[in-house]
Q: What sequence folds into this?
């Protein structure tokens, strides 16, 4: 029979995919399922970006490119880092891959020896721990509860660092919690890192442009130049420019790390897609004003979802600073019984109930390493959100 390699034997298909498959199957059966699980903006890729891709095809830019990014795209990324983050990266300190996910994979594959530890605050984007495990590393998960704003504290970080620690992974704004680190939130963590020169920092800034109210986005390598030589600043076009299917992510970091990551990439994908790279140049160098409008639209939806959730007895939703997710506590509903007599013991039970009874698909906190919570992605129309929240409220009211 088939036996998987040990590096993947402990990794299951993610809860997100399982719920998604169930929801899609129910939809095919004709049930009116609303899926609030998608990790992508509901906007379209901007027209000028699409046009630039077509032009690249007509110019014949349909062949292999330079291994880790065309010179044009690296220049555009260099300018982006300087303009938006106050960070100077030379083009040989920049790498481009097939999505930020491959950036993370390249980085872990290039640096982790068996048993090396990677500190990951929870709730986390599921891929972090799975990628670390595929690379034979050991994820060190640290629970960061709602009361702490889903943020890691300096004391927690200090206590988690061992001689085997290779990386700290931070994601701000976060998928799934929407929580973000301000300069003041980052400072104590960066001070801890300064004391431990063997620990490297990977920051995932994918949701940088989706922040609300007066929140000021900052990135650690700009905040603390002394850490820049061991920080990998990860970003991409997927979320900011509604380009998830184009598969382009990038990072800035120390030259030696960037070179090692290119070695991994050279034997995995050879290079990112040529047409997508041309489109990403247009995204990064073209007009940026639509980002504000899109964020304003997300903000209205965030406010709607948060207020409707908090009006439901037993649910508790912290107001997220960014991204397009809410991560609500459902502790107040555990122990209750559904109309069909099933007891809700976990967040997974609760999400199963919502799917089956209210036909709303959301993802349990267990999928992100922190329970009892559930994630809603509000990157869908206001009408659909209104309907989904009404159904969730009614389903919660039916519990006894
Ligand atoms: N980082 C975070 C926190 C994400 O939520 C995602 C996508 O869901 C990614 C990275 C990956 O983005 P991509 O591979 O599309 O660039």
A:
């Amino acid at each position: 029979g088939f036996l998987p390699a040990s590096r993947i034997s402990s990794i299951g298909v993610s809860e997100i995919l399982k719920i998604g498959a169930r929801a899609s199957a129910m939809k095919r059966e004709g049930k009116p399922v609303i899926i609030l699980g998608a990790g992508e903006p509901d906007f379209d890729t901007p027209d000028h970006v699409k046009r630039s891709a077509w032009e690249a095809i007509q110019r014949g830019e349909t062949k292999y490119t330079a291994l880790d990014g065309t010179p044009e795209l690296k220049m555009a990324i260099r300018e982006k880092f300087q303009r938006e983050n106050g960070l100077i990266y030379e083009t040989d300190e920049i790498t481009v891959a097939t999505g930020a996910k491959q950036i993370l994979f390249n980085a872990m594959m290039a640096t982790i020896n068996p048993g090396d530890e990677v500190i990951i605050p929870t709730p986390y984007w599921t891929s972090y721990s799975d990628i670390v495990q595929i690379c034979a590393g050991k994820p060190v998960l640290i629970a960061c509860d709602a009361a702490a704003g889903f943020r890691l504290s300096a004391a927690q970080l200090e206590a988690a660092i061992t001689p085997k620690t290779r990386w700290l992974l931070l994601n701000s704004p976060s998928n799934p919690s929407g929580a973000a680190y301000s300069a003041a939130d980052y400072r104590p963590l960066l001070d801890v890192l300064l004391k431990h020169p063997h620990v490297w920092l990977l920051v995932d800034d994918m949701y940088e442009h989706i922040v609300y109210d007066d929140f000021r986005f900052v990135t650690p390598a700009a905040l603390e130049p002394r850490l820049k030589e061991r920080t990998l600043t990860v970003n991409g076009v997927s979320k900011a420019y509604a380009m998830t299917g184009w598969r382009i992510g990038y990072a800035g970091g120390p030259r030696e790390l960037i070179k090692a990551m290119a070695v991994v990439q050279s034997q995995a994908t050879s290079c990112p897609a040529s047409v997508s790279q041309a489109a990403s140049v247009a995204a990064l160098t073209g007009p940026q004003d639509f980002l504000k409008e899109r964020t304003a639209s997300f903000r209205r939806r965030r406010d709607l979802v948060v207020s409707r959730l908090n009006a439901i007895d037993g649910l508790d939703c912290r107001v997220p600073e960014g991204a397009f997710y809410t991560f609500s506590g459902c502790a107040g509903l555990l122990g209750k019984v559904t109309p069909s007599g099933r007891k809700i013991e976990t967040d997974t039970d609760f999400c199963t109930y919502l799917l089956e009874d209210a036909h709303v698909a959301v993802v349990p906190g267990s999928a992100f390493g922190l329970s009892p919570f559930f994630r809603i992605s509000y990157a869908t129309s206001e009408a659909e959100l209104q309907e989904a929240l009404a159904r969730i409220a009614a389903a919660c009211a039916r519990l006894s």
